[in-house]
From TrEMBL:
Source domain of life: Bacteria
UniProt xrefs under InterPro entries: NTF2-like_dom_sf, SnoaL-like
Official protein name in the record: SnoaL-like domain-containing protein
Pfam families: SnoaL_2
SnoaL-like domain span: 8-107
Species of origin: Paenibacillus glycanilyticus
Length: 113
């Protein structure tokens, strides 16, 4: 696995340690998140998304693979938490693709690998 930028490390650690403030600090103020074809732009939208989709269901990530490609960091994680897992694969793998600028997450695309 590769060494990841501090913003990416902070993103995953903040989720796993349930620290929404630290999570939001990893993002640029005008960051763009594309989560399974749903778009969120800016701090307020990302805060609302992360509260509902990550922190309330107590999501946890286990990093399975990380690579750098075309100036982006692509991290595959196993996802767990307190959410309905009906008809979901086990393990549930998700791809997180990060674009970093000025040590902050500028873009995040989340999809199935």
């Amino acid at each position: 696995m590769i060494a990841m930028p501090i913003a990416v490390v902070n993103y995953f650690n903040a989720v796993n340690e349930h620290e929404p403030g630290r999570f939001l600090e990893a993002f640029d103020e005008q960051a763009y998140v594309l989560d399974m074809k749903r778009e969120f732009v800016g701090g307020k939208a990302i805060a609302n998304w992360s509260k509902a989709e990550i922190f309330e269901p107590k999501v946890r990530f286990e990093i399975k693979d990380a690579k750098e490609q075309d100036n982006r960091y692509i991290v595959t994680v196993a996802v767990d938490g307190e959410f309905d897992k009906t008809n979901l694969p086990d393990p549930l793998l998700m791809k997180h693709e990060f674009l970093i600028a000025d040590e902050k997450i500028k873009e995040l695309h989340i999809s199935f690998p």
